Amino acid sequence: MKLDTLAEDVGEWLRGTGPESDIVMSSRVRLARNVAHYPFVSRMSDQDRGDVERFLRERIAASAVGSQLDYIDVGRLEEIDRQFLVERQLISREHADAQGARGVAIDDREQVSLMINEEDHLRIQCMHSGLDLRGAWEQIKGVDDQIGRVVPYAFHPRWGYLTACPTNVGTGIRVSVMLHLPALVITRQIDKVFRSLHKISLAVRGLYGEGSQAMGDFYQISNQTTLGKTEEELIEQVGDVVPVLIDYERRAREFLVRETQQNVHDQVSRAYGILRTAQTITAEETMQLLSRVRMGVLLGLIGDVKIADINSLLVRTQPAHLQKIRGVELDTKDRNIERARYLRRHFEGGTPQN
Amino acid sequence: MQCQQCDKQAVFHITELETGEVRELHLCEDHARIYLNQSEAAQEAEEKPTGGGLTGPLAVGQTADELALLDKKACPMCGITFFEFRNQGRLGCPHDYVHFEKELEPLIANIHGGTQHTGRRPERTATPPAEPLPEGTDELTRVIGLRRSMQEAIACEAYERAREDRDTIRGIEDTWLVGPRSEARPPKADGATDET
Description:
The complex is a heterodimer. Chain A is of the alpha+beta class.
């Protein structure tokens, strides 16, 4: 099955390529769209839900982008497979946990994903590695145009694209950039940075979107408003602030090396040590330690690990991935043991340590 | 000085004195209006909390009676009442933006700072025999109400009315929705076959 072959790769957001990829993990643009002739998702009957799922699935397949997409019937997936898609950022947690007919169409590079029957009938997402909002926007615009030719998007001349929640109305766009900011966390500057972002009406979220806690020093910055400005202006709003954050993080990293070299080296080495020797470890702790090691590698404090490997471990040590790779279902306790074993094996397989 | 909420110049400089705390605000005209409306509404609403993050600015200038009446107002297409929307924070169908336009306007202005879409617009193309869908889709959204009416008619065994509704729905859908995969395509007038 397609899902199992996906597990062998890391997906777009952890590819670790693209501009500024030492700090910017990925750039994402999503568009919220609804069809005009059915109620919004929260008010649909089961019949409506099935009809909209079929309507959109068929129209997307018949569109010019249809041949590049694979469709997954999320409503029929086991929980572990839904979780797997969440970990790869191809569907949202809400979409995974929802009930009834729903699905997702994805391309084989895992850059494009179209969720059917999430909060809106259609959520189009496009994700690129590193800092590449422009590229993601150009790509999603093309997909949106092609689908818009065969799907009657609900639209109002004044309010723009009509969405289930008024917070998305207008452009329906959410522009987000995922950043790895460990040095700002260590130097306790992160809260200050976030307060200033809120002032310019940008939102900060954790790794897995809405309501999620920041894990492993990964943060998503995104626009909060969607009406009254053009898509380009909203992309600029987010895009303009990213170089500033990159600069802050770089300066904080330089400061750490300059002023507290020994401490940082110690922290990073301990993190690396735990990852290589632990016998049982949670997903959260793994994420936190991998984050520190990732910074250590970028600062030249750890020599024998590649960034691409760390990125790959970030997703492969997630619960559903771990179970998919192992090929069996495991409870939390066994997962923690398996995760530690997986990490040990991974690091042993690299260059042997003294 | 710049407005604390946007890039415009601040023309209102407000000093709030709240239980010994002094708070200074510098706002442009638009944000000052929103802010002042909100604080008035907050004072009025103090005795009658409405709950939910989306509800605050809706209470502007409305009495409890007016609010109660507004809560009962229902969308003729999907049937959602304003009360239900206020509780769930989710609208029922695209027509709600038309039916509740007056009520939603201050709320949307408060969230986004703007009330006019300036971004991309759908490019409508038609696949004959369908006509190109107008930019605004409210006419097509009518089928949501018609479907509801048809279900009600079936439930009370008014089959004649149900049939009429069904035919109207088909008429509307046939006008705009015939897409690339529709089976209902009539034979071409020039005698050409569909096989290429």
